[in-house]
Amino acid sequence: MPHFIQAKSILNKTKRRDSWFLDDYTINPYSGCSFNCLFCYIRGSKYGVHMEEKLAVKENAAALLDKALTLRARKGQYGYIVLSSATDPYLQIEKDTRITRVLLEVILKHRFPLHVITRSDLIVRDFDLLDEIKNQAILPSDLTGLAPSGVLITFSFSTTNDAIAHIFEPGATPPSARLNAMARCLSGDFHTGVSLMPLLPYISDTSKHLHEMMGSFQRVGARYVMPASLTLFGNGPSGSKVLVMRAISKHFPDLTEKYRRFFEGKTAMPDYYLDALQKKMKELSRQYALPDSIIDWPQTTPEADSEALS
Ligand code: SF4
Hints:
By secondary structure, this protein is of the alpha/beta class.
């Protein structure tokens, strides 16, 4: 049985729009995430090792959102809503709860633009509403002429290999099904791309693996690929660092020592690695004609942040 809660608020106004994700606002219809990715940055003592056990549905989400967007629209404060930043909007449970679908109806009513970020293929269920949002959304004035659409759809991948994804993203839709869903989004004329986050060192960041992934994204017609490296947090039993290190020891024992050196006492990969990865991804972006951001920002705009979302 799903666990239902009454949320105090649902629409979060971000302090500053991230130039990759364009998040003026974020909404999380669920508390926790049953996709249970080992590297997930929301992990920690709050959700435990098996995040699906603490998953909760925000029962009053639609009413809260209606109220919040009524006020924002009245003041003309239109901006992209990112769905979601700390859960996936298309968890398995969404088939029954339909909370995300109801939130889309509210977003459509108030004509806010939307950026969906997901590791699921369930999004195809909501093409009817997404199409209407796309046609009716009012873009924030500073993005008019820059943002390509009132609806953006980003599929997140740490790999396109189903077996490897099963280890690191055990509850998410297999990447092969995500790629099929991407193709359907693109056929439906939705501006759709990839957040290649996080790339797993020595696993999905190898030249061979990167070429395979970029080839797959190019074949389905992705509009952009935004890459980021792995960050790991927490030394407690449910911390992402502990869970990823355990998976590496079990499934990739030859990499244990390398990962230990990278992450012992640290959360991010070393600068030399980040520089090399950035250079490699720039080359691949050119080679596969896959831009590394949604918006082709004018030269004066600061470089994109690398804060990873879902
Ligand atoms: S990374 Fe995203 S999809 Fe995976 S568990 Fe975290 S919130 Fe869910």
